[in-house]
């Protein structure tokens, strides 16, 4: 892990709906990390993703060099932890919008540490230009409801209902 601040890609501003939570994140949609299997973002049909309706992307690190939570401090966000606390979702405690998640723990003998941001909470690029239209992004679909890991995400929505 590096504490060096990344300068690759584009700096985006993001926020919840009410503006209580604000962040910046550096993403490069032209070079998605291997975890996204060629997609820019993924949806998932697992029990929590389905109900939250999030669309997640991976900045390629654990957030330490790409993500800055401007306000509030993370401890003042809402946090929903499940799966024996290994999966933690962070959301605005005022308007409920889910911003990102952190996964850290051992899954079937393998240590996993990931960071994913909800691309639906991106507002604009640092220079004020608009975020890429979601239609231009490559979206893939995890079937965690029925398949789980290991697998690659699919090109079309899967049973259990993500669009
Ligand atoms: Zn809010």
Automatic annotation (TrEMBL):
Record the organism.
Cercophora samala
What's the superkingdom here?
Answer: Eukaryota
PANTHER family listed in its UniProt record = CENP-V_GFA DOMAIN-CONTAINING PROTEIN, CENTROMERE PROTEIN V
Family membership, please give it: Belongs to the Gfa family.
In its keyword annotation, does this UniProt entry include Metal-binding? yes
Q: Entry's InterPro entries?
A: CENP-V-like, CENP-V/GFA, Mss4-like_sf
In its UniProt record, a GO molecular function of this protein is:
metal ion binding
Descriptive protein name: CENP-V/GFA domain-containing protein
Annotated ranges, domain CENP-V/GFA: 12-143
Keywords recorded for this protein, A-Z: Metal-binding, Zinc
